Amino acid sequence: MRLSDTCTIHSGFTARGKLESIDIGGVPAIQLRDISAEGAVDPHHLARVPLEGVAERYFVRAGDVLFRSRGERTTACALDDRFIESAVAILPLMVLRPKRDIVLPGYLAWAINQPAAQRHFDGSAYGTNIRMVPRSSLDELEIDIPDIVIQQKVVAIDALAERERELSILAAERRRWLTGMILADRIKTMSPAAGPERKTK
Asked: How many domains are contained in the chain?
């Protein structure tokens, strides 16, 4: 099924100039840098910016999917239930709103991030210094859409795999830290004792 048949797609808000954060007021803004390497957005770490008169279509919330159309990592992420307050998605982010009777947000993001979809984007990307994926490439992407129950299972298994990956990294870092502590302790015990002080005449 074509991606354009499973969700509505439009570009993020075009900011005029640099977005300056403010402490009070404004609206949360999601920029390209706010999406982690793991494909997650933490709403508690978003900058608030003084934007007024922004059309409703640029505001995203839990259940929406964001796609990085620029850079080496052209992947998608689904916004989770932590998004209590709506945020403005800033271009070059693309906003995907799944048709919930067809596809789950988590499954849609998962499908876009799979190797087959990424190869599709590789074939249509342009730009030498900065890689860009055109909107038409999103529209034309073909993805497999199983029934909702299967989608739920895929999302759950993928979440478990991601959690396992995180724990493996944490365990590896912990082992390295312990190894460093053991080696440092061994070096202290193996170091030659200081020789006797030379007597002065």
From this structure: 2
Amino acid at 172: A
Q: Are 88 and 13 in contact (CB under 8 A)?
A: yes
Q: Are residues 170 and 95 in the same domain?
A: no
What three-state secondary structure class fits 191? coil
Distance CA 58, CA 13 (A): 6
Q: Which amino acid is at 155?
A: V
Q: Which tokens belong to 61?
A: 């919330």
Q: Could you tell me if residue 129 is inside a domain?
A: yes
Q: Which two tokens stand for residue 66?
A: 């964001």
Judgement on whether residues 140 and 150 belong to the same structural domain of the protein: no
* Tens digit of each residue's pLDDT (9 = 90 or more) over 90-133: 999 999 999 999 999 999 999 999 999 999 999 999 987 888 99
Residue partners of 81: CB distance under 8 A and separation at least 6: 62
In whole angstroms, give the CA distance from residue 174 to residue 167.
10
Q: Could you tell me if residue 79 is inside a domain?
A: yes
Domain span holding position 177: 146-189
Whether residues 78 and 30 share a domain: the answer is yes
Report d(CA 54, CA 168) in Å as an integer.
42
In tens, the pLDDT along 49-60 reads 998 889 999 999
